[in-house]
Amino acid sequence: MRKIQLAFPSGGSKLSSTGVLPPLGILSLGTYLKRAMPELEVEVLDGELLGDRTIDLLDGDVLGISTTGANYYNGIVLARAAKRKGMRNVLGGPHATVKHEQILRRQLSVDAVIRGEGEKPFLDYLRAMGDIAALRTIKDLSFREGSEVVISERRAPCELPPLDTIPAPDYSLLGDFGRQYMYNFEDHPYTARDYTRFSSMESQKGCQKSVDKGRCTFCARIDKGLRRLEPEEFWQRVEASADQWGKTMIWDYSDSFTGARDDWLLRVAYERPPHLNNVYLKIFARADELDEVTVDLLRHVRVREVFVGFESGDQQKLESVNKGTTLEQNLAAVHNLRRANIETYGSFIYGMPGEDARSLELTLRHAEDLMSVGQLSAMGIRCFFPLAGMPDYQRLVNKLRKDGCSALADELVECDAFDPVDLQRLWLHHMTNTSYEEIRHYHFRLMDAAHRHDVRINGPERLLLL
Ligand code: B12
Ligand code: SF4
Q1: What are the φ/ψ torsions at residue 242 (nearest 5 degrees)?
Q2: H/E element, 371
Q3: Residues of 251-267 as b/e, b for ≥16 C-beta within 10 angstroms?
Q4: Whose CA is nearest to atom 4 of ligand 2?
Q5: Interatomic CA distance for residues 365 and 328, integer angstroms
Q6: What are the pLDDT tens digits along the chain (466 aa)?
Q7: Secondary structure (DSSP) of 121-176
Q8: Among 212, 221, 222, residue to substitute to test ligand 2 (most atoms within 8 Å of Cβ)
Q9: Which of 427, 416, 414 minimizes the C-alpha distance to 464?
């Protein structure tokens, strides 16, 4: 084996970070493989940046494809093209982790699927390729052997490596295309605010809330437990990503940054190197964690923007998806953030279970209250997207059966993927008491309110994953 290529297919909504931040999952994977097998040529291809050109660039021995529920179909187009060129295809990422068996049964272009965190099992797979007995011993691997699909056992959370041992991503794996991200950043809103670099990292894997109170039913995350970088390693990685001559924004993808119940955040705040005074962070956090003390620590860490999932303005709807937050906590969170001069990016979902005109009205009012009390930089709102792996995907299957649509329910279970927009429409039809038209009507009203408050908001074209 001479060369391995890792691709993130395009798909889903185009956001301001699309084509500006490279895909961290396959960069991390590629860095790990290159370090373990230095003789191997490793290339990372971002379909969000390259579009249809990705296919022309396929020329390795193995293609690793990173899948979500939104980009899976484009991933299969890549896999078929790669197969025609004689490559071996391995899928990974959140979608393939859940639908591994169905994928291997239905897609002959796919040779194997790795479930969950890919670094170690992918390396083991590359080393064992062709040796069926060795392949069978690799945990978190599914592959086809003749007409049989072999599914190995899953790694227990305690078998996963400490985060500090997974190397920071090596951006040189992007080759010449790496420069394109910098050119695209010139049109990003952060450039107008004097940032000279925008980068991403992941300091924590897992979600403490799902450990303590169970997962939100609309969440499709695949990691278990909670692991973090040591604060010293955290700051070393921040420093390595920073532009020492300019102003840097780093988006930490940990979900949530403020979730740990111990003193991790305190240590991170305490150990901040004073010379990194022009490096700022954007993070994900939950409203119930953003009390005054925590927000003060965020200010010390130099967090500038916090992405908070408010989801709905109807308390009953929040409870129906096991969100674990209250409307009062939402208001307190934006208030505390504002006092610390930290902006909030507010995220909402239309089409909660049982959503109707009344709950949409409550969401509209709550969003207005949040804009009045807080310092909102923007709001992002989508229609509910039930993805395989979410508890709500199973809820939809159950409801379809109850509504007499058993064939459709079976198809959702047995398929390797379902068209994303059809899924959204099915959900609205069977799980809510509203319609896409009514949602659009409320969205236009919310857009008016956002414009009055001078808060950026997505247009209606982003409500569905068209
Ligand atoms: C950052 C992010 C984004 C960014 C991506 C920017 C970029 N260029 O990377 C943006 C904002 C654009 C985005 C968009 C979307 N996202 Co998003 N996003 C995330 C987030 C927060 C972090 C992802 C990440 O980089 N993690 C860090 C890396 C190191 O981990 P990783 O990506 O999971 O990769 C590891 C494993 O998955 C695996 N792996 C991944 N790929 C591969 C490939 C191979 C071959 C192998 C072997 C292994 C492997 O190994 C990797 C290393 O350990 C996750 C939630 C989370 N915290 O994971 C959601 C998440 C991935 N997103 C999700 C969704 C739904 C979306 C959207 C559909 C939203 C929308 N409505 O449009 C779009 C789809 C985009 C697309 N093209 O498919 C879901 C996916 C669920 C699913 N089943 O598909 C997640 C899990 C959120 C959630 N809670 O449900 N997203
Ligand atoms: S949506 Fe966020 S808080 Fe809820 S379970 Fe998923 S990662 Fe945790």
Answers
A1: -80, 150
A2: helix 357-373
A3: bbbbbbbbbbeeebbeb
A4: 216
A5: 13
A6: 899 999 999 987 677 788 899 999 999 999 999 999 999 999 999 999 999 899 999 999 999 999 999 999 999 999 999 999 999 999 999 999 999 999 999 999 999 999 999 999 999 999 999 899 999 999 999 999 988 999 999 999 889 999 999 999 999 999 999 999 999 999 999 999 999 999 999 999 999 999 889 999 999 988 878 899 999 999 999 999 999 999 999 999 998 899 988 999 999 999 999 999 999 999 999 999 999 999 999 999 999 999 999 999 999 999 999 999 999 999 999 999 999 999 999 999 999 999 999 999 999 999 999 999 999 999 999 999 999 999 999 999 999 999 999 999 999 999 999 999 999 999 999 999 999 999 999 999 999 999 999 999 999 999 998 7
A7: HHHHHHHHTT-HHHHHT-TTEEEEETTEEEEPPPPPGGGSPPGGGSPPP-GGGGGG
A8: 221
A9: 427
- Residue 99 DSSP label: H
CA distances from 365 to 285, 316, 345, 444 (A): 22, 15, 17, 13
Tokens of residue 193, six digits: 């605010």
Output the pTM of the full model: 0.96
Ligand 1 neighbourhood includes 199 CB (under 6 angstroms): no
Among 215, 227, 308, 329, name the best residue to mutate to test ligand 2's pocket (greatest count of ligand atoms within 8 A of Cβ). 215
Sheet with 376-383, strands from edge to edge, namely: 197-201, 248-252, 279-285, 303-311, 343-350, 376-383, 456-457
Unique residue bearing structure tokens 């592959």 = 143
Amino acid symbol at 359: S
| Identity of the residue numbered 127 | R
One-letter identity of residue 56 = D
Alpha helices per DSSP H over 144-270: 178-185, 189-192, 208-213, 231-241, 264-270
87, two tokens: 């490559």
Judged by its nearest atom, the ligand closest to the C-alpha of residue 389 is 1
